[in-house]
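ok trying this again, last paste got cut off
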Amino acid sequence: MSLLYLLMVAVLQGVTEFLPISSSGHLILLPLLTGHADQGQVIDVAVHIGTLFAVIVYFWRDVAGGFVGMGRLVRGKIDTEGSQLAFLLIMATIPVVVVGLVLHMTGLDDAMRSIKVIGWTMLLFGVFLYWSDQKGETAREAKDWTLRDAIVMGLWQVVALIPGTSRSGITISGARLLGYKRQDAAKLSMLMSIPTIAASGILLGADVVRTADAAAARDGAIGATFSFISALLALTLMMRMLRSVSFTPFVIYRIILGVILLAIAYS
């Protein structure tokens, strides 16, 4: 793999992972539209690790609290903010891990990797993001997160296993429908990404460890570094944007891209 294409993959993953425009959809489209071979699991795992560290750095206070809270949680105590956050993140992650494992074992995840599927999901869930953002109230904050909300958002996250849906987009939509403010909806979505990305990395990582060589490890390190930098910048930009604007710019982008992809798919 050329260095230029590797950087394209890393930056694309970093920028799109936390914006509600679907990182998996863009990563599937890149080789299809450029004619390059698929980047493979080593790079996929590496760039996801980069984005994982980006969200950990950005929300380090919440992550540190949740990490400390895990110690109390394993002792059966949910009596602090950190232990409650750890518990809710686990509950929100269980559905996507179970369904994701089933799709991976049956090969259905590969069956959905097509321009037609991505085009429709880009378009339809872009419209859904706009509707939920406009309909949703802006009264609740991240500290108001409950077990019911975590489960509901976790079920929405399962839908993101369909390429082009966007994990952040669908969970933000779910949070907005539950009444969370835009920034708080985004924050909950980003925190939910930590165990989800970690779980997917572990799932794919087992295969990667068996097949990776020195060259793949080098490419993976480069990919992880650049995806980390681009993800941190994109996350910072989006969270600042949400102080004054809605998700409409992302909706417009999704609709335009969705229409273009469907035109290509059906031509």
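PB: full thing came through this time. The chain has twelve helices and no strands.
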